[in-house]
Amino acid sequence: MCTLEKRGRVLILTLTGSGEHRLGPDLISSLRSALATARSDRTAAALVTVGEGRFFSNGLDLAWAQNSSEGITTLVSLVKPLIADLISLPMPTVAAVTGHAAAAGMMLALAHDYVYMRGDRGVLYMSELDIGLPFPDYFMALMRAKITDPRALRDMALGAKKINAIEGKERGIVDKVFESASDVMPEAVKMGEQLAGRNWDRGVYASIRMSMYPDLCKSVGLPQESDEEAEKHFASKL
Q1: SUPFAM superfamilies attached here (predicted)?
Q2: Least buried of 62, 69, 90, 130, by fewest C-beta within 10 Å?
Q3: CA–CA separation, 142 vs 87, rounded Å?
Q4: 137-146 vs 71-87: helix axis angle to the nearest 10?
Q5: Could you give the 3-state DSSP secondary structure of residue 142?
Q6: 113 Cβ partners below 8 Å, 6+ apart?
Q7: Is 150 left (phi over 0), alpha (psi -120 to 50) or beta?
Q8: What b/e string do you get for 123-142 counting C-beta neighbours within 10 Å, with b at 16 or more?
């Protein structure tokens, strides 16, 4: 499913195996458990997520949904708190996208603070229009938060366009592009180490991130600080 290892103050979350890393109940549970461990590690200061093989994640486990009485609605509801876990995680996060990231898999990547991607292969792709599925509200909230070019958002949501790393960087979706998969992970870890070295207050980092994306936080059920709570939090740091 996934593993979590620690290198100094950087945590490496790896979706293991050579499959498509489709988000079914077992993988979602494994990822959430790893993120809970990351959250509880008071010495951890950054997280890097990577998928082994050709895929970062190819989206929801549609085969599981078709063979289950619970169906796709269950998967959609299970991914929502996974996104909330990442948005509220008290440390910087980097997605090392070394393969395709589609639909819910792209959402998983975009829920990180930084997206690093290989340039020789792999695409970002919202496949819902092509397969006849509507976007969950929180998918669109996440896309609006992270894809700020309205034409890029249109092309991905209403055109089901597959965007490679170079175009993703040009459109502000991807932060850095590297020649091959072997280059992405070391650079993502290096970025994690640089961010960890800033020694930021974990709670403050999470609070600022959540305040950047109020609509997204609301859509995934994250509580919003009132002005009074924010003032108390600010005063406690003085």
Answers
A1: ClpP/crotonase
A2: 69
A3: 10
A4: 40
A5: helix
A6: 92, 93, 94, 209
A7: alpha
A8: bbbbbbeeeeeebbebbbbb
DSSP string, 46-103: EEEEEE-TTEEE--B-HHHHHTSSSHHHHHHHHHHHHHHHHHT-SS-EEEEE-SEEET
The residues spanned by each domain of the chain are 2-196
Q: What are phi and psi for residue 197, nearest 5 degrees?
A: -70, -10
Helix/strand number for the chain, H first, E second: 12, 10
Query: Any bridge partners for residue 117, and if so which?
Result: 97, 177
- Model's pTM, two decimal places? 0.95
Phi–psi pair at 218, nearest 5 degrees: -60, -40
Those residues whose C-beta lies under 8 Å from the C-beta of residue 165, and which sit 6 or more positions away, are 97, 117, 118, 119, 122, 174, 177
Instruction: Compute the distance between CA of residue 116 and CA of residue 180 in angstroms, rounded to an integer.
Output: 11
Which residues have a Cβ under 8 Å from the Cβ of 32 and sit 6 or more positions away?
Answer: 81, 82, 85
**CATH fold label, 2-196:** 2-enoyl-CoA Hydratase; Chain A, domain 1 (3.90.226)
